[in-house]
Predict the structure.
Amino acid sequence: MEKWSVQSPEEPGFHAVITPDKCECQETQMYRLNLLKGQSYTLESKDSELHPVLISGAAKLSDHSVLNETMKQFDAFYIPGNDSVTITALEDCIFYIAGAKYEGVGKAFFRSFDLSQPVGDIHQIHGTGIGQREVMMTLSDKDEASRLICGLTWGGEGAWTSWPPHQHEKDLEEIYCYFDMPLPHFGFHISYLKSGEVEDIVTHTVHSGTFVQAPVGYHPTVASPGTRNAYLWCLGALRHSSRSYNLAVLDPALESFNSER
């Protein structure tokens, strides 16, 4: 668990951050694409499905039959296997890109970020009290895809997210990718393997650019005072049949430890 946290590169270019050859997550990959204003990059999916989310900046998509939008912050798109699209930076850009095995299910689409839309399938509020957080689905389990489910989460100031702790290790891996938390802002991403065994917790300090794996076990997070934890979470199903957002298992030892304060 100590090695589950990785600080993603800030240098320009395409970076493989979490991949099966060097990390414990075997079904879910995370990449980071940094482009300077005016630079272009052709993203090729090959045998994977890819889901880029624009974390900062503005960009234009081209050289694709469906995707030709101008992107603003937190816009996202999906391409299936054996596909490609050209991304041109209109401003300096950071993309976080989720990847997983493509199994013939999924078609290219674009999702515009709109936090003003009513709460429903895409815009969601989870938890209560000090564990309440706001979620925007960028690739929901109702969208066509083979393995991936992804979304953006914002917690409250100095608050917990994904509380009570949960795991979904029989069905899904997960990767948390933090943003908009520039140092000295920070939070803690907590990992432990068995119900109630909090003395065995491994705590990862997280801030902008930190990626943390959750191949197994429970994984709540908490922000420092004056900080809101913000992250792109990416679920990778172990098989297409387990591609569902409702498979989280709460830690029975802590399930009732929820505060309305």
